[in-house]
Amino acid sequence: MFPASFDYVKATSVPDAVSILSSVEDSKLLAGGHSLLPLMKLRLASPSMLVDIGSLSELSYIEDKGDYVAVGALTRHHDVQNSRLLKSEVPILPYVASQVGDPSVRHRGTIGGSISHGDGASDLPAAVLALDAKFVAVGPKGERVIPASQFFVGFLETVLDLDEVLTEIRVPKFSGGWSYQKFNRRAQDWAIVGVAAVSNGSTKVSLVNMGSTPLRAVGTEAALADGASIEEASSKASDGIDPPSDLNASSAYRRHLAEVLVRRALVEALR
Amino acid sequence: MTVVESGSSKRVTGTRMLRREDPALLTGEAKFIDDIVQTDALYMVLLRSPMAHARIISVDSSAAKRMPGVVAVFSGSDLRGEWLAPMPCAWPVTVDMKNPPHYPVAADVVNYVGDAVAVVLASDKIAAVDALAAIDVNYEPLPVVSNLEDALADKNLVHPALGTNTSYVWNLEPDKAKVDSAFASAEHVVRSRFVQQRLIPSAMETRGVLAVPHPYGGEYTLFSSTQIPHILKTMLSLTVGISEAKLRVIAPSVGGGFGSKLNVYSEEVLALTLARKLHKPIRWTEERSENSLATIHGRGQIQDVELAADADGKIMAVRVNLVADMGGYLQLLTPGVPLLGGFLYHGLYDVPAYSFTCTGVFTNKTPTDAYRGAGRPEATFAIERSMDALAKRVGVDPAEIRRRNFIAPEKFPYSSAPGLVFDSGNYLPNLEMALEKIGYKEIRAEQERRRAEGSRKHLGVGLSCYVEMCGLAPSKVLGSLSYSAGGWESATVRILPTCKVQVVTGTSPHGQGHETSWSMIVADRLGINTADIEVLHSDTAIAPYGLDTYGSRSLAVGGSAVYLATEKVLEKAKLIAAHALEVSPEDLDYQDGEFKVKGSAGKSYALSSAALEAFTAHDLPEGVEPNLEATVTWDPPNFTFPFGTHIAVVEVDEETGQTDLLRYLSIDDVGNQINPMIVDGQIEGGIAQGVAQALFEEAVYDESCNLLDSTFIEYLMPSAAEFPSFELGNTVTPSPTNPLGVKGVGEAGCIASPPAVINAVVDALAEFGIEHIDMPASPEKVWSAIELARLSGTRVD
């Protein structure tokens, strides 16, 4: 478990990080390191240079912006988990953050790192997808705002360009019910299947580890919009979805779990 | 509870004394192998085969040799001339056992994924790792043998030169006619097939070795993260061809082993060989995912078990047919491990007729060997699962079927049908205590209530009554089982001139707390403080004789040797005291560091005076040599037989198949206890390890024999978060086998717990008509079984 050799540089600012990423081939951003470093140790990733933004304290904040809460990309899971502002305005997010990994992961790992890693098996990407969050990214051409629904495009792949830095996550406030159902074997594991449900006028449901990206349970959402019962809507949890098979679960078992967990999530979110 | 015949009025044995080992361990002061500084050492890494079975056509290491920092690269064929003998297997269980030659680096054919094909030595570890990628090996794939049925069929052969995949067939059938007639006349016959999945031992510290040559003196020091420095020294000498007198083996602080470090490994042989070849210190540290491939695996059996019973459920005979997975080669004790359970498939039940057969077969997988419990967890699982099946057949509660079959207390020492003599036992009170403490009736009532209301969260309760044989072992018995070593243990007790005490033990602790427990034994006997006693171990230059730590033997055998050596040194001190006091030794009593003349108040002689006198030797009695030291090598007359009852309470979620372990209670009888805190720690860890087998862990291979879960992401070793707090209790039935009356506790928890959990899961699923779930009982497996039951309509409503 030793990574291939690489160069390391500490970015002094976001523009500095962007400029290094633009100029150094195969350079890669390092935040909390809890997704990237294991991949490097397994030699599944071999960047030529790590651009460390871990000490850019200006990217760590949680601020009230009226109808949304702005979360700096470098905010640690632990801080998300314990934010009073988020607990009152977007309560699902602190709860989901509390379900990530174990305490040491939550003290180092960052919300921006988790989201830009784009792992379909991670908790936070699915949560921000169900929340219809927006992401602010800064690149050589300036800043752009990307809706969560357009952000995740493939296995560990997002719309971020290689020289773009995710700087902020904007999560809309909501006052309705919510639920996060995480099914796993060990406390620190990724979900075998997870379900995030947010009820705020309409009901949005997203799925963890049911595909290469976090997914919206579109069948369930459409059924609910048409006035279907919870039982009926949850039976459509994996409509159009072909979940993976692995040592923890076959594809068929994942479909079944999605149905059970969506039902439980809806019961909790809509009670 | 009397533990040690006491020379102390302030007894410490039997108290929960904190472990003297822990401050150094907890502060990082303890030195593990990677903490040993050796600035001129070369780092060794091994290129491991990605193929399970293949002929090595060529190994091109020319590019790797040119890489910066690389000192040497050797293939298996480069090293052909280096070995005196192949890697040792010390347990030829039958005279015709097939044992293919096994060398540290494969030269011709690789036999499992992880088999070493080349070795790199470099000035730093990263350079060595980088060089691995530059070695080009050309393999010609061979057909793999991936499971035990295929292995038995001999269609493809792991070792074609042997002509078969079967290494051995071992029988234990004292009276075949009796077994046959029992089955012929039985009212109930219960037949089961159980699978003992392969497990990956996961000690907190992976393995590591540092071989240091002393080229001008011709000596070698080998540090290894091993359980067996003494056995390792002898075996390395025989394998590498270095004089045993010139080889010193040291096990520094060792972070756990669970049997996986009870072995002689390629890397140990290789490091020593290359230290000799290059005249340089060589060090190797195993990586975690490498540990999954290159350290032995545990279990790996298919068990066909049959019970014959009369109408009341009284067992008349047990018949077992085992197929055991050896893996690609025989490691140190590979073939014998299943046989350690072979005497115990009747559990703690009075069974008159017994038949056991084990067929050991090769597969293209990592070799198996001893893993905590070694054969006995497998036997306990088989009998305890079968007992539940028998209870169902007879129509009685699982507790009742056990009551009906226990060996009665008056039958001890009990001669078992397979030929053991159980030292002591009193099983019924132990079971009743467990049932009472868990609230068995109340749990059954709650279970009924849930069933009546159609709950989807099913409650299950599972019993496991176990007995095991440990305290390895009488040397004669080991000899009769073709084991290549004895089972004695050595101890020296040395009272220094200032009356401080050194205890030298041949055991080799790697987490068990021997320094604490041995000092407690000596402190009580000598009536001095534990603080005045040091325990030395795990260095063959300091403790030249020993048979190390495994098989729950250390206290029963090594602790007893320490006790007897203390007695012996005290006898010598008494001669000196008697001489000084001008009385006969028989007239002296000893307590709290002083010899006193019986009945004559005030006339006394301190142990410290004897210690000084033994050193100055100015006025020793006739025939008494200077110095106060005694050595005892003790060979136990029998095994010890701990027992107990474990009860698991689970809740199974019908919708997801998830099993939650709600409660876990154990009442263990390990005889007398020296330090109950250490005993509890062993039981707790053992339970966790056994529950891990029942619910979580399995080395999963695909059809090409690739290990699919070589990291802790996939291999589900549980953590404390997955367990409830265990409820522990004891009964105490001293063993008559040793002077301490102790039995051994290192493996008990993990021997007892897997069937308790699976019995509970199956009990929870009773209304679906489900009779068995293979380990590990993963949610998907349970869910699938429920789905199948629904489809086939076996649900009992």
SSE topology:
The complex is a heterodimer of chains A (271) and B (797).
Chain A: E1 7-10, H1 14-23, E2 27-30, H2 36-41, E3 49-52, E4 62-64, E5 68-72, H3 77-81, H4 84-89, H5 92-98, H6 103-108, H7 111-117, H8 123-130, E6 134-139, E7 142-147, E8 152-154, E9 157-158, E10 165-172, E11 178-183, E12 193-200, E13 202-208, E14 215-216, H9 218-225, H10 230-234, H11 251-269
Helix pairs in contact in A: 5-8
Chain B: H1 22-27, E1 42-48, E2 54-60, H2 62-65, E3 70-75, E4 109-110, E5 116-122, H3 125-132, E6 136-141, H4 148-153, E7 166-172, H5 176-185, E8 188-199, E9 208-214, E10 219-224, H6 229-240, E11 247-250, H7 266-278, E12 282-285, H8 288-294, E13 298-309, E14 315-327, H9 337-340, E15 353-362, H10 376-394, H11 398-405, E16 414-415, E17 421-422, H12 427-438, H13 440-452, E18 457-467, H14 475-480, E19 489-495, E20 501-505, H15 514-526, E21 533-536, H16 554-581, E22 588-591, E23 594-597, E24 604-606, H17 607-616, E25 628-634, E26 643-653, E27 659-669, H18 676-696, E28 727-730, H19 748-764, H20 779-792
Parallel strand pairs in B: 1-12, 10-11, 14-15, 20-21, 27-28
Antiparallel strand pairs in B: 1-5, 2-4, 2-6, 3-5, 7-15, 8-13, 9-10, 9-12, 13-14, 16-17, 18-26, 19-20, 19-25, 22-23, 23-24, 26-27
